[in-house]
Structures are given as structure tokens and as C-alpha cells.
Amino acid sequence: MSQYFRKKITEWLYRSACGAVQYLWAKAGELGRVTPSRPARFRFAHLGDGACLAFPPGAIFGEQCIVIGDHTLVGVAVSISAGFVPGQDLGPDPVVEIGRRCSIGRGSHIVGHRSVWIGDDVYIAPYAYITDQNHTFDDPGRPIGIQQPANNPVAIGDGCWLGTGSIVLPGTRLGRNVVVAGGAVVRGTFPDHCVVAGVPARVIRQYIPGHGWQPVPAPRKETT
């Protein structure tokens, strides 16, 4: 066989292998997604009509305590967990509740141990992190990682938008239609219709009826 034909055959095999891999990966994404019409729906406390978990997923366990509402889209590599490990008994009530028509971006993490509640029409950009549990460090003589963690419920109101890389810490309560800037680290209670940003996050803009969106000055530092 001439060098010309060997080169053509090698090129054909290469193109065929590339096409096969791309076809099989697309088919895996189609068959691997979780929807209400697939058997995996039975693992969840509730998986609403039109909801979809994309393939490949992140770490998803504790499904018996996870509720996902109608027409909510969970992106690729999103981790949603209830409890520390698969099979943990967390009682009869939902731990992670995600509302209707939400969108959760690629690589985000939602980690619930007591209660993470996300309302309807919430949009979460890629690589956000939401948790209701934090490490404690009361005993300075023990490693932080083995001290008893503390849980504090999280609630994210209807219509919120969480930017890329934002972090929502235990005890946070966001009102309706709150914008969380990318990279913000959020803890505390925030009112409806505001924009929060920074580390730690604070309100930088708020909607005032009759005046529109108004900037909120940073608190003045006390001087001695």
C-alpha cells in the first residue's frame, strides 16, 4: 500500500473516531438526563412536570429529601445534596426545595442539611455555592474540621438572580427579586428589590417606589 493511501486511511479513521465520540457523548447527554418521564424521578421527593437535570450531573444524593419544581432546569455538573452522605435519614420533610421555572447554572453547588429553600423563577449563574451549614471553631484546641458543624436555614425569594461564583452562607434570607453580584459572599437578611455585592455582601442599590433604583451609600467608618 502506498504512503498516500495509508495517509488517507489514517485520516478517515481519525475523522470516524472523532465523529463516533461526539455522537456517543451527545447520545449519553440525551439518555442520561433526569426528567419526570425517566425512572430516576422516583428517587426524588418530587420532580415537577417539565423539570430536567442535565447529564453529566455533579454529586446528587439525598434525593428523597429534594424537591424540584415544574420546568426547572438543572445544568451540567451541578451538585445537589441533602445530608452528609447518601442514604442518611433526614426525616420526612424536604431539606432542599427548589421552586418552579428556576435555572441552575453549570458547576453550582446546593448543599442542604436543615433547610435550603429557593423560590420560583430564581436564576443561578454558573459556579454558585449555597449552603445552610458551616464549620464551627469554638474549641481552639481541636481541628476545625472535626468540630460539630452548625446549621442555619437559607431562603432565597422568588425572582432572584445570583451571579457567577456567588456564595450564599447559612442563615441568609433574600427577599424577592434580589440581584446578587458575581463573586459576592452573602450572609444575613436582605429586603426585596435590591442589589447586593461585595465580600461581605451589602446592599449597594435598592428600588424605591416613585424614585426607581437608587444607590445605597456605604456605611461610614467610625474614627477615633
TrEMBL record:
Pfam family, one: Hexapep
GO molecular function: acyltransferase activity
Domain of life: Bacteria
InterPro entries according to UniProt: Hexapep, Hexapeptide_acetyltransf, Trimer_LpxA-like_sf
Protein name: Acyltransferase
Originating species: Streptomyces durmitorensis
Keywords: Acyltransferase, Transferase
PANTHER family (UniProt xref): ACETYLTRANSFERASE C18B11.09C-RELATED, SIALIC ACID SYNTHASE-RELATED
Entry similarity comment: Belongs to the transferase hexapeptide repeat family.
